[in-house]
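Weekly structure sync, notes
Attendees: PL, DS, HV (note-taker this week)

Item 1: FBD domain-containing protein
DS walked through the input record. Source organism listed as Helianthus annuus. Sequence as pasted into the shared doc:
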Amino acid sequence: MLTNLTTVKFSKCKGDKSDMEFLEYILGNAQVLKAVTIFALENLLVEEDPWFRAQVLKFPRASPHCEIRFLSWKLPPRQVVSSPNPLMWRCRRIKGDDYMEDDSNGPEPNNLIPDTYGD
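Item 1 (cont.): predicted structure, written out as tokens:
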């Protein structure tokens, strides 16, 4: 199963032990994985408490090309995308089912989460 897995959408993630074990297993074993989208509880994604995101991003990845998207199901659609290189962060605006990268040099639009966790 994991040899062909390219996309995972994980809904209603609570960040408990079983959720974390599942994410660690998928990230560590799916060798051709391209994207993991985690729809997490709103309180897991607040800027004041980056614990959940930091823990998930520490998990080893079998696929060097995997991006992890964190979305909240209670907030307006917005996300932070981590690239395979942890020093390269990108914010993307969501428009329908399409993702548009924000490459502007000006102030960030209100619907983006600031890039503050790259350290």
